[in-house]
Write a structure and sequence with these properties.
21% of the residues lie in helices and 25% in strands. The protein is α+β, with helices and mostly antiparallel strands. The longest helix is centred in the N-terminal third of the chain and has 19 residues, at 24-42. It is flat. Mean pLDDT is 91; it is low at 271-275.
Length: 309
């Protein structure tokens, strides 16, 4: 469900025609494998998503989450608003055992949670601490005045620009923020629902209350960030291309791994055992070491590997 690249992208990388469905099952397996290989190697989630885990309290004032970097949204007091931490030795984890976000800090880069105060500790128990939080490397960054504008034209009544709130978002939170900002714009008369699909890796902007809405593409707006590459019109507007928020170098590593696995398989016209290198679609040469990741992929992913705290 949470994939770094799509089946269509892999087929393009491998030179398989989009109309050729004979290898789709293999390509889907390859797509899933690439994500697992990358996340296993760096020991971090790539696609930002929600995790639930349990820890022994051990009477400590700190907790090291299993996943990082942690993705946090914050309230007006700068406290975490999308994380829940419970401490319950009976493991019922009702709301009465929820620790107030005002009582802890989170290091987003390492996943280290610290309780405030010298006398504040987690209870000494077995799996008595439950943490529900978001983590991953993917981010959608909206920069005010650069890619924050979203331009719509309802029922051919003229263009209306909405300035989307700046920030670094998960896919779900960006969809939610766009929806909120559109519905808060008094110049728009429609009611908007914005969603993101991890299956297709595309955003959908749906509207009711108007006959049709036109999405106006411009490279200086939010269009490319959310996968729109041209004008669209209708009541349900869907990204033209998949977007993930994954760093570009990780996507390059995923491409190298996909090519490597393809050559190892019996699906390729030239088998891995018979070659030591091959040309890539972008130009240049991909060289193989048979007992490890392709060198370019390894070099990239080594920068993201988990480190000890």
């Amino acid at each position: 469900m949470y994939e770094i690249v799509t089946k269509t992208e892999i087929k393009d990388w491998l030179g398989i025609a989009s109309t050729d469905t004979s290898k789709d099952s293999f390509v889907e397996t390859l797509r899933d494998a690439v994500t697992k290989i990358v996340e296993t190697y760096i020991q971090k989630p790539v696609i930002t998503r929600q995790f639930t885990e349990y820890h022994d309290g051990e009477g400590k004032s700190t907790l090291l989450l299993d996943q990082y970097p942690v993705y946090l949204t914050r309230d007006s007091n700068n406290d975490p608003s999308n994380m829940s931490i419970y401490d319950d030795t009976d493991r019922g984890f009702s709301s009465s055992y929820l620790i107030s976000p005002e009582d802890y800090t989170v290091d987003e880069d390492t996943g280290l949670v610290k309780l405030y105060g010298s006398d504040t500790f987690f209870a000494d128990g077995k799996n008595n601490v439950k943490a529900v939080y978001w983590a991953g490397l993917s981010r959608f960054e909206v920069v005010s005045g650069q890619n924050s504008y979203l331009v719509l034209n309802e029922d051919e009544t003229g263009d209306t620009t909405t300035d989307i709130t700046a920030g670094k978002y998960s896919a779900e939170d960006l969809a939610s923020q766009i929806q909120s900002d559109l519905n808060d714009n008094s110049s728009l008369s429609g009611t908007y629902t914005v969603t993101y699909s991890h299956e297709t890796q595309k955003f959908t902007i749906a509207v009711t209350g108007v006959t049709s809405v036109a999405f106006k593409y411009s490279s200086s707006t939010i269009a490319e960030l959310i996968g729109f590459s041209a004008d669209q019109s209708g009541t349900s507007l869907v990204s033209d291309t998949p977007v993930t928020g994954v760093p570009h170098d990780i996507r390059l590593a995923a491409q190298q791994i996909a090519l490597y696995l393809y050559e190892m398989s019996g699906q390729s016209s030239t088998h891995f055992q018979n070659i030591v290198s091959r040309a890539t679609p972008e130009g240049g040469t991909l060289r193989y070491l048979q007992d490890q990741l392709p060198p370019v992929a390894k070099m990239i992913l080594d920068r993201y590997r988990r480190v000890s705290v």
